[in-house]
Amino acid sequence: MKKISSLFVIALFFAACQNKEAKTTDSATADTTKYPYTPKKNRNWEMNADSKNMVVAMSALKAFANLDTTSLKPLLGDSLQLNVDGYEFKGTSSQFLKEAKHEMDKFKSIKIMLEDMESVISKDKTEEYVSLWYTQASEMKDGKTDTVNFFNDFKLKNGKVVHWSEYVQHPMKK
Predict the structure, then answer these.
(1) Which of 14, 50, 79, 94 is the most buried (most CB within 10 A)?
(2) Do residues 61 and 84 lie in contact, with contact meaning Cβ atoms separated by under 8 Å?
(3) So which residues are the signal peptide here (predicted)?
(4) Is residue 91 part of a domain?
């Protein structure tokens, strides 16, 4: 009986020591969820560990809040697209800065209170975005004040902002 149990223990030991190929699955292919919509393109976004884009996007927002087109200029690509609450701009950064200056001249001050931020890059490294969530308190030169929640999405290419989308959450009317 001792020989049989010793042989059994040895057999179990050898079985446990065998190299078995571990089965791994790619999380993208393992997802079998039935989503109600399918995107046109699945870019498989991942968090961007490089903070350069985050600094560029935040610096662009800070330049706007400081009403400073000079600081904004080097952060922009040669051409730029802007989508802001019912307004769209598409043209050169010089044209954009003229229009931005005109808008900035209406403000007395802008204060930004950042809530959250995220920087993503497509797995094929062809697209990079930075998203910022914040509250903006503004005082206009005519004395009006406003506090509004914003979401900004910055598309960057070669370390420059090439598309700036701004989404506004207007306060509820009483």
Answers:
(1) 79
(2) no
(3) 1-22
(4) yes
Cβ–Cβ < 8 Å for 138, 116: no
pLDDT digits 0-9 by tens, 80-132: 999 998 899 999 999 999 999 999 999 999 999 999 999 999 998 999 999 99
145-157 sheet: strands from edge to edge: 45-47, 107-122, 128-140, 145-157, 160-169, 76-84, 87-92
Supply φ then ψ for residue 42, to 5 degrees.
-105, 105
Q: Are 136 and 150 in contact (CB under 8 A)?
A: yes
Its domain, for residue 137, covers: 45-169
Q: How many domains does the chain have?
A: 1
DSSP, collapsed to helix, strand or coil, labels residue 35 as coil
Looking at residue 78, its pLDDT comes to 97
